[in-house]
Amino acid sequence: MEKPFRPGEARMLSLSDEDIQAAAEALIAGQLVAFPTETVYGLGADAFNSTALAKVFEAKGRPRFDPLIIHIADIHDMERVVDTGTLEPAMRKQVDAICYALWPGPLTIILPKVPAIPDLATAGLPTAAIRFPDHKAAQRLIRESTGAIAAPSANPFGYLSPTRAEHVREQLGNRVDFILDGGRTGIGVESTVIDFSSGPPRILRPGGMPRERIEAIIGPIELPGAEAPAPAGRAPLSPGLLNSHYAPRTPLTLHSQEEMSALPYRPSEAYLFFSGSVRTAWLQARGVIPPHPAYAQDTPNSSLVRALSEAGDLIEAAANLFDLLHELDRLPVSAIRAERAPDKGLGIAVNDRLSRAGRGGSA
Ligand code: TXA
Ligand code: MG
Prior knowledge:
The chain has about 375 residues and is of the alpha/beta class. The chain has helices at about 15-30, 50-60, 90-100, 120, 135-145, 165-170, 210-220, 255-260, 275-285, 295, 315-330, 345-355, and strands spanning about 10-15, 35, 40-45, 70, 105-110, 125-130, 150, 180, 190-195, 200-205, 250-255, 270-275, 305-310, 335-340. The protein binds threonylcarbamoyladenylate (TXA) and magnesium ion.
C-alpha cells in the first residue's frame, strides 16, 4: 500500500515565475503546496481533488470534522465553489457588496456549496468557506492551478499558525511537497470568517478584517461567539472556534493589563506585553533595566520579555503575534504570560487567538 507521505523534505521554492509554475503543476497533480497569503501561510491542495484534500487532513493531523477554506483568485470563480442562488435577495446583495468592497482581503465567507466541491473539503457541511487572498503570489498560484485551492493554515492541528516559510518547514517539512517562501506575512492573523449561509450574517471567527469595516458596508452584525454550541454529537458550527487552538507548547496564561503590571519578574518565564511602554515601565519597576529615560526610548528587547508593538499599534501587534509566540515557544521557559490587547479593531482577533492559545481557553 502506498505510504501517506513520501519521506524527505519539502522543496523550498521562491516566488519566481518558474517556481510558481512548478508549484501550480504540483497542485494540479494532487500534491500539497504551502504558500504565503496576506494573513498566514496556507497548506494548499486542489479543492476539486478528494485524494489531495485527504492528504491535507493527514499532514495537519486535522480532524475530518474541521472544514477547509477554499481560496480563489478571480471573483468569477466564486460560482465554481458556492451557490448564492438560494439566498434571499437582500442577503445576496450584502454578499455581493462585501465581496466587491473587501476582496481580495482577509475575509472568508460561508455560503451554500456547489456539488462539485467534495464533502471532504467542507467536512460534510452543505456550506463552503471561500476567500480571495490579497497576495500576488498566492493569486498567481491559484490562477495557474485549478482556480480553487483548499488551504487551512499550514500548522499541525491546534498549534500556532505559521507567519514564515521556516515555521512551515519546521512543523510540516516532511509532510508537504513544496513550500513557497514569500517571507513574513503582512497581517499575521487569519482571515475573519463570516457566515451568510443561514439567517442574518454572523462572525464565526474574528480575524484580519475588522468587524467595523464589514459593518460599514452591510450594517450591524452579530458579535463573535454569539452562536449557540453545536448540538451533542454534531460537528461544531465553526470548528476552528474550539477552545484550545493556536496554542504554543509552553503553557500560556492571558492577563489583563493590571494583572500583567503586577506580576513579579521570574527568569524562568517569558512575558509578552501589548505595548513597548508598559513593558519598559515593568522592567524598570523591577530593576531589570535602569529607570533612566534613555532606556525607556530604546529598551533592548530581551528574548524573554517582548512587546507585540513598540508603539502600541493594533495592526503591528497582530502582525507580530504568531511570530513572537513562535519565538517564545522556542525558549526553555516553563510559562508564557501574555497581556490582553485593547478590545477593538484587530485587538479582537489578537485577544481571541491569545485566549485560545491559553490552557483551558478562557473567554
Ligand atoms: O487567513 C486564513 O483564513 C488562513 C489562510 C491560509 O487563508 N486559513 C485558515 O484556515 O485560517 P483554517 O483552516 O486554519 O481555518 C478555517 C476556519 C476554521 O475555523 C473552520 O472551522 C472554519 O474556517 N470553516 C471552514 N469552513 C467552514 C464552514 N463551511 N462552516 C463554518 N466554518 C467553516
Ligand atoms: Mg488554522
